[in-house]
Amino acid sequence: MKRYTTVCKPDQCSKTLEQKIKNELDTFMTYDEEYPELVISVGGDGTVLYSVHKYIHQLDKVSFIGIHSGTLGFLTDYQKDEYMELVADIRHDEFKTYNRCLLEVKTHNQTYMALNEVRLENNRRSQVLGVYINGDFFETFRGNGLCVSTASGSTAYNKSLGGAVINSGAGLMQLSEIAGIHHNAYRSLGSPLILDWTHIIHLESENFDGAILGIDTKVVDLSGAGSVDISLAKQRARFIQYKRVAYIERLKRAYLSE
Questions:
Q1: Which residue among 11, 26, 32, 45 is the active-site one?
Q2: Residues facing residue 171 across a β-bridge
Q3: Is 80 exceeded by the pLDDT of residue 72?
Q4: Is 45 one of the catalytic residues?
Q5: pTM of the model
Q6: Which of 41, 34, 43 is nearest to 9 (CA)?
């Protein structure tokens, strides 16, 4: 790869790290923000998400890699004191690629993509949702909302909801409840539901007033009656790996290491 760009978290530590990386890479690569081959995320997992969305229309042409400017990041391979190792690995140019699944989200005649999750939430009142799987009625949900996550996003908001952690390479999506209401009058599944690429989740309501649709870091306001369709996208985000960071090691350093 000859062309690269950086996407940086807007804090001084990240900006300083970004400049150090650029100073080194400019000696043998060309900085090209418009048509890069390699996108280097400098920051945290949120910056990785922003990077993917910034180049969402060029996914067939770009690859992503991340370096964390704080303590650690689940989606990043390098820590801030390893930036020279990152530069050396890019120069050496031997890597493996792996694809992360994306969600395709359709609502209000618009189509969006998500790397981590889609959240339909309402913090003003209980949201009533008709839930359909592949066109078949599944349940009526009442509560704060529902979250659909990819395997990559299973360790993010989904995990805080009590959802399962899924290996990031799995082509699966997970439907988890956000503060569901469960008693004799109203009842839904109450457990995370894991589905594969053959399934489409259809959510509909006669009243979305006060509800929002969170698509990774993007927020879309919903109002009135409507529906949302969520499925695994045909497109995927291509990440490159110069050094092997085992999935179990990522879990340990993110949640178990002291």
A1: 45
A2: none
A3: no
A4: yes
A5: 0.92
A6: 43
